[in-house]
Amino acid sequence: MRHIQIALTKGRLEKAVLPFLEGIGIDCSELKEKGRKLVFHSKNTNISFILVKAVDVLTYVEHGVADIGIVGKDVIMENEKEIYEMVDLGIGRCRFCVASIPSYDPSSYKKKTIATKYPNVASAYFRQKGEDVEIIKIEGSVEIAPILGLADAIVDIVETGVTLRENGLIIFEEMHDISARLIANKASLKMKKDEMFAVIEKMEEYIGNRV
Ligand code: PRP
């Protein structure tokens, strides 16, 4: 049995992914008692895990350091990487939206300024609508931008809608549905075919049984 390295996204997705891994019979006891550790081994399989930031999941998988990754579709859409997207896990569901303060006029002909953590997704969206906008890249707490006048609107992910609501913003356009995806390194799929597909197929079966 060849070793499989899985890169997991630190933060929001971390907890949601555990039942999936346990559901397909992977021991996650080390992951559950992780403290500040970033590398973990499953006691009953040939699988180990690394815990990294979302965009780094893509990088580790693209370079083959990790064979498999679990990461949000938002991050996949924003960063063009040479990876295969294999399974929609149906967790971490949220959506890309255009949001702003109530006085925002989406149909205005004035050139708009859009603040976002996702400049590529935002540019592609407005380009496809035939609208020329200025994009300002922000690293977080994007909701502040239209309130303080940095931008006319934001493009961001909305999960519960609480952050928008608590900051007095509303959704003007729903862009794409997002969820966590299982991604794979292209070479690993060939070199470790049996081990890789064992994980991927079990994951698909687990998801099928949940529906
Ligand atoms: C994301 C997103 C929103 C919030 C939406 O930010 O950018 O701010 O979550 O979630 P909600 O609809 O459930 O309120 P994140 O928590 O990742 O933090 P950040 O702004 O620091 O990137």
From TrEMBL:
GO terms for cellular component: cytoplasm. GO terms for molecular function: ATP binding; ATP phosphoribosyltransferase activity. Coiled coil: none annotated. Keywords: Amino-acid biosynthesis, ATP-binding, Cytoplasm, Glycosyltransferase, Histidine biosynthesis, Nucleotide-binding, Transferase. CDD domains: PBP2_HisGs (cd13595). Its EC number is 2.4.2.17. Residues 53-204 form the ATP phosphoribosyltransferase catalytic domain. It catalyses: 1-(5-phospho-beta-D-ribosyl)-ATP + diphosphate = 5-phospho-alpha-D-ribose 1-diphosphate + ATP. It comes from the Bacteria. It is an enzyme of class 2 (transferase). Pathway: Amino-acid biosynthesis; L-histidine biosynthesis; L-histidine from 5-phospho-alpha-D-ribose 1-diphosphate: step 1/9. Its main location: cytoplasm. It is found in: Cytoplasm. PROSITE patterns: ATP_P_PHORIBOSYLTR (PS01316). GO terms for biological process: L-histidine biosynthetic process. Catalyzes the condensation of ATP and 5-phosphoribose 1-diphosphate to form N'-(5'-phosphoribosyl)-ATP (PR-ATP). Has a crucial role in the pathway because the rate of histidine biosynthesis seems to be controlled primarily by regulation of HisG enzymatic activity. NCBIfam families: hisG. Heteromultimer composed of HisG and HisZ subunits. Lacks the C-terminal regulatory region which is replaced by HisZ. Belongs to the ATP phosphoribosyltransferase family. Short subfamily. PANTHER family: ATP PHOSPHORIBOSYLTRANSFERASE, ATP PHOSPHORIBOSYLTRANSFERASE ATP-PRTASE. This is ATP phosphoribosyltransferase. It comes from Ectobacillus ponti.
